[in-house]
Structures are given as structure tokens and as C-alpha cells.
Automatic annotation (TrEMBL):
GO-annotated molecular function: identical protein binding
InterPro entries registered for this protein in UniProt: TPR-4, TPR-like_helical_dom_sf
Gene3D superfamilies associated with the record: Tetratricopeptide repeat domain
Signal peptide location: none
Name of the featured protein: Tetratricopeptide repeat protein
Amino acid sequence: MGSGVDAWLLINVARALLDADRPADARALLDRAQDLVDDDVEVYRTRGFANAILGVYTAANSDLERAARSGTDSWLTALRAEVLRVSGHPDDALALFAELDPADELRWVAASRAAAMAALGDVDGALAAYAEALRRDPRDVNSLCGLGELELDRHRPGSGR
């Protein structure tokens, strides 16, 4: 087998490991796949996702940015934005979220956008984004929790909100 076929097999086994909640094992296979084919977008997309799950946000961002150089889609853009948000860059996350077509948006994006707005102190924007997320999915736990946290912060004595 050629190195491209070997890398393809490693990528697909890594995806199965991600599905099995084994991101560290997936990342190890993806590192081996990258050694075989240095510039494969699927290696970077999948390893970026594994790194995000593991909380290794600098590596996740690097991999996802590298994958985006070959073209992007709503999933990749949303994941890049989410990694930026959870790693303390809500302004950069909002800029990427703005690139997404709302009609095509993944369900969790509205809640993540709202959390980024809340982190920047845009309470009205966050409330509107959480309301939109809950309009789409009234049982969305992330939106319900985020809205609850925002309301608690707004009504906490001395919060100034």
C-alpha cells in the first residue's frame, strides 16, 4: 500500500476512535498519518477536532486554520470559532460565526455565539442569541444553562448589569 492509502486508513480509524470517545488515541494515529502525508486537509480537520476535545486549543486552532487554507465549510468554520471562544478569544469567534449562513447553521452554534457575546459583555446580544437558539431547539441544554448563567450574573448584587 502507498502512504496515501495508509494515511486514509489511519484517518478513518481515528474517526472511529473519536466516535468511541478516545480522542488521545485518535490524535496519536493522526500524528502518524501526518508523517505519511504532510499536507492532507483531512488529517488537520480531524486532528483539530481531537485536540479541541482534549482541550489543547492552541494545537486545535493551528490544525483547523491549516485545514481552512484548503477551503472551508460551515462545520469547519463553526468549530474554529468554538475553539477560539473557549480559549478566550470571543471577539475572534464572533467574527468567524458571522461568516456562517444562519439557514445552514449547526444547532449548537447559536448557543456558542451567545456565550461569546456574553463574554464580551454584550448582554442584550447574548439574550437575543440565546432566545434564537431556544426558538430553534427549546431543549438545548447549552442554551438553557448559558441563559441561566447570564440571568444569574445580571441579578447578582454589585454586577452593574
